[in-house]
Amino acid sequence: MAPSKANEQPDGILPDIVVAFDRAQRTGLPKVAQICDAISNLIASGKIKEGAKLPGERELSAALKISLGTVQKALNLLMNDGELVRDHGRGTFAKANRHAMRELWHYRFRDTAGAGLLPVYAKVVERVLVKPEPILTASLGEDERGYIRISRVINVGDRFTCWSEMFLSATRFDRILTLPISDVESVNLKQLLNEEFNVPTLAVHQTATILNPGKTICRQLAVAKDSLCLRLQVIATSRRREPITFQKIYVPPVEYEMELTEAPFETAKSLAA
Known about the structure:
This protein has helices spanning 10-24, 31-45, 57-64, 68-80, 134-140, 170-173, 189-197, 215-221, 265-272, and strands at residues 84-87, 91-94, 120-130, 147-156, 160-169, 203-211, 229-237, 243-251. The strands form two sheets. Strands 3-4-5-8-7-6 form a six-stranded antiparallel β-sheet. Strands 1-2 form a two-stranded antiparallel ribbon. The protein is globular, with a radius of gyration of 19 Å. A hairpin with a 5-residue loop joins strand 7 and strand 8. By secondary structure, it is an alpha+beta fold.
């Protein structure tokens, strides 16, 4: 189905893309990845709505002060990822493209209607190199290069939103910064580490705390800034109990039952194989 003309408003979108791109430049990623992350994050946040028309390639090139070839490469990657669609003769448009996560370890919320677990969709908001801090060195060990932080918005069945921050060793997993955005989006990152780096997650240790996570995370969870939420802190280990990821998961106050498990048995068994 062709995008509706009512959504064709590229003039209002361009300033948002410029601001998002300026923010993405702080990550140190290649320019193509910066453009992809900027546009992808705007689509995820709803600032670029499904069916909205993007500015032309030359207009983007001039506004971002980036070569036309780099802009074209980024837009092609976003089209390959299913986030954009090109309608020849009319332009490039935003497109919704969601795939439910499989092999859930943490976001196991039960439907109140008794229909099983709610589907879960993840959207990457940021992947960036961060400096060492005590909780990361204590959880993952020292790394002079720092740590990679992957921040994701977790949509649970279109009922509510969770927030996830996963940290990994920059020395060991630096390639994750340059993987296509689709590879780190609606996937279980534990599966990704096994498939891309041959590092299976064999066990997790998690603690739970009820707290106010602060106004920034409350905004991501779409709750009042003084809300109390559930925070899970999860350390995942691999062979010989080696710690590989440290994760913070924030869950808003909801009526849905959350199933807690160390790891689905069949998943852990297959990863260990």
